[in-house]
Design goal:
Four Helix Bundle (Hemerythrin (Met), subunit A), 248 residues, globular
Length: 248
């Protein structure tokens, strides 16, 4: 048994290695080549592009299957301003349903991790951080918009001024107040979109933080937020189902 944390194994070679029951989190497998492998009973969550298994690119099949399972998922890839308005309305409605589902559980369960993943409260805190970063900073130009309760990804750098209080245990209502404020900010931005403003380059924010100090289009930032909202709700729904079983 061995732990590899914050290690650079670029170019490493593994032969006749047993990875049974191994856990990988926040790892980069770009360019990895695997031959003569047994990939059985494996769960993978992440970005999958140009993944060939037995010479078949499985990425398009995964995307098509996810769209089939979740018909509204394709709405999270809008092109025109009106599509962004529709997509955000879907996000607001679905998250409203998920929050009501969470309210039915004892409050302490909302701070319980399922399988080492973020708790429900931590998921909401991360979405506050994501909105502060990609909307308030990248699009609206605030160099340091983060609320202390915002939660960046676990491997975020320590030296760029991001909130770091992983031990905070705010109530659901505290975090929902932040969420309502941030979601209103996104709605105002989306409702003011025009075809020109959607693809206009922002002025880079000259201050340390996330995202990096460079220009982005509103389109790119909003698509990132839509993806964050969709995927984290999907994970939250998955974990709430397990917590409901535990509670009953």
């Amino acid at each position: 048994m061995a732990d590899f944390i914050d290690e650079d194994l670029t170019g490493s070679r593994f032969e006749r290695v047993d990875f049974t029951d191994a856990k990988f989190k926040a790892v980069d497998f770009s360019g990895v080549v695997m031959r003569s492998v047994d990939l059985i009973n494996v769960d993978i969550y992440g970005d999958v592009e140009n993944l060939r298994i037995n010479d078949v690119d499985v990425g398009p099949f995964i995307e098509a299957e996810l769209d089939k399972r979740y018909p509204l998922r394709a709405k999270m890839r809008p092109v025109e301003p009106v599509g962004f308005v529709e997509a955000w309305g879907i996000v607001e409605r679905l998250w409203g349903e998920t929050v009501e589902r969470a309210r039915a559980l004892p409050p302490d369960l909302l701070n319980v991790s399922v399988g080492g993943e973020w708790t429900f409260i931590e998921t909401l805190r991360h979405l506050v951080f994501a909105t502060d970063s990609w909307i308030s900073r990248a699009v609206l130009g605030d160099p340091a918009p983060w609320d202390p309760l915002g939660l960046p990804w676990d491997e975020a750098p320590d030296d760029i001024g991001l909130p770091r209080d992983r031990d905070a245990l705010p109530s659901l209502e505290e975090v929902l107040a932040l969420r309502r404020d941030r979601m209103s900010t996104v709605r105002r931005l989306i409702e003011g979109l025009t075809p020109a403003s959607l693809d206009q380059e922002t002025v880079p924010v000259e201050a340390p933080g996330w995202p990096p100090s460079r220009s982005f289009t509103s389109r790119r930032c909003l698509l990132i937020i839509l993806n964050e909202e969709w995927e984290h709700r999907r994970y939250a729904e998955r974990d709430l189902a397990i917590l409901e079983t535990t509670h009953t």
